[in-house]
User: What shape does this take?
Amino acid sequence: MGRAEERRARQRGHRAASKRRRSEPAAAGKPAKSLLRRMFTWKKILGTVFGVCLLAILGFVGLYMYVDIPEGNAAARQQSNVYKFSDGTLLARNGKVNREIVDLSKVPRKVQLTFVAAENKSFYSDSGVDFKGTARGLLNTLRGRGKQGGSTITQQYVKNYYLNQDQTVTRKLKELVISLKVDREKSKDEILAGYINTSYYGRSAYGIQAAAQAYFGVDAEDLSVEQGAYLAALLQAPSQYDWAVATDTGKRLVTQRWNYVLDNMVEEGWLAKDRRTAMRFPKIKEPKRAPGLDGQKGYLVDLANQQLEQQLMAQEGLTQSQAENAVMEKGWTITLNIDRKKQAALERAVRSELTSKLDKTKRKVDGDIQPGAVSVDPKTGKIVALYGGQNYYEHYYSNATRRDYQPASTFKPVILAAALEREATTQDGKPITANTLYDGGNRRPVVDHGRPVGFAPPNEDEADYDEITVQEAMNKSVNSVFAQMGVDVGMDNVMSTASSLGMDTKGMPAVPAQTLGSMGASPLEMAGIYATFANHGHKVTPTIIKSAEQKGRSVDMPDPVGGTVLSRTAADTVTSVLTGVVDDGTAKTSVAANPLRDGQQVAGKTGTSDENKSAWFTGYTPDLVTSVGLFGEDPKTHGHVSMEGATGLLPGRGRINGGGYPAEIWAAYTFGVTDRSAFDLDTTQGAAVAPPPPPTSSAPPTPSTTPSQTPSETPSETPSRTPSQTPSETPSQTPSRTPSQTPSGTPTTGLPTEPTSEESPDPDDDGGGFHFRP
Assistant: This one.
């Protein structure tokens, strides 16, 4: 055999042996590699990572070469928003752009630096892009979270001037590329000038010149460092931080932001520390509103914008500032739930029952009265009418949505709802129901398992009651009863129920004083809470928007009616109890005896706050809930002031109670737009439930009144300062209790002889005038 043949034979043997090894089981101690391990070796993993990175780099290079800096179109994108009534008729058109470009040289250097200190301290040294923030933003977008994690002044300028606020991966990648190119092709001063001239500052102001005029009444070149720091802080959340309309939280946040800006300037060496220490928060000018929003239009448009912005923030992950910029003058067609006829009726009711009687030239206090109201369909959650103030141009702040006044005794039904829902008991273990007896003594110390809690509220006019049922206590708004009930239920539980019903309880302490409604709330909030009662415990979040569309795009608004937050029995029992407030309590004169009522069933509650600074009536029929509030506000300082003496038509001190003008406005409006209907209640308690038939007897019935009933009735209908009331009133009160127990809601027999609220002092006082502040 030759050498060549031997070599070929050896090769054949090697190949055969290799095949045998592959086909034989692995030798002991040397397991064969699995398919997964053979596929994912370190070499292959590193090669894959390298390949992906190379593709990403090549892709970015391609994107960088492909994407050019587009023409600036910030001004061109401004378009009118159109607002319509629910029937499609035009309500308002708002879209006049308030913008004036100014050269950066016209803006003081230290004012320029306030924006750098607020948004991007590394602005003068960076490449125009925050890669970590952009990567975080892209990741959030891919996850559906939306909110960008951070961006430079250059990126924000590019977004404002060249692109839009869309939260998409494509837009973010374009923003990244264009920002890098802009930073290379433009100077930092050009970029900063573009940024401060295209940003939205609220009050329909685009750019620093318009903002300087809107908030301080000066040109941009005359801005102080303090004023510049405020405008720089404002960009984070323009409407929320606008001092004229900001809540206490908004004012606290913008003050913190203002301090942050100035402290950053000191840190960067742009501001002397001693000068910084001497600086004070600037005074903000009252706003002037855009034309075409007179009367109630501006209030309706503002609430629609706010609710659309909130939905964009929730749905697309926009920040507050981004959402405002995406809504204001961006070509939206927004149809509201506002019913034209109901809106007109509400405006007429406020005018006929209140504002036509105000004359600030005769009485200074008449200029302090601010009415607000919200009307909601409880079955759908639609806001069908809203009253924000006498005129949007004269009073910028909407009285329908403001939360800085106490709801007073209109909060008491929430306490009862918490007790019923949790099947709470009194201190001695008795279930809390409409018929549970409480000690209604004036200034009775509230106790927690025998120990005083340091709270002993007086009843209205120091009225003293003996044992009194929960139903009677609600009718007469007895403070001492509900203060004790709140502790019996547990104030944490009460505030939890308030939150689940729709009240913003964040930061509210769970203390007994809250039982008297000492927190802040708006007519919008109270209408939502009572609408939840009316809707048998299904959560109602009132909404003003029917639809919102923009260039073929529509935004899905959340369903105003949510799940059950209160059992039907608990909600219906609250409604049943509140019918007694109308038929036998503090709303009897203005609502139950109103000639327009025509047998309509009504539930509701009055409220009058400490020092008569606010007065409320929140009430409902089966198909309509309306909350009316009157607020005493100094027109210059915006401080809370007493409303006593307003209109000059009320006797005595002229105290305005919830059962007076608020209830009269409510009745004039509601009875004019609703048809008679009956509550469908699943409860065995409360004034709307017919009492059991009396036991049969051969002797004729003899009407009588026990001694304990006589004094308990008198103070609720006639304050203690009118002792001249004759005993003849007592018999008329006794039979009036029977009709209030019937489902018909028919006014009581003795009502035609009742004096009106303008003929006797405080006929409908509700006992909500005292508030303890810990």
Residues 96 and 290 are 8 Å apart (CA to CA). The two ends are 114 Å apart (CA to CA). Residues 42-66 form the longest helix (25 residues).
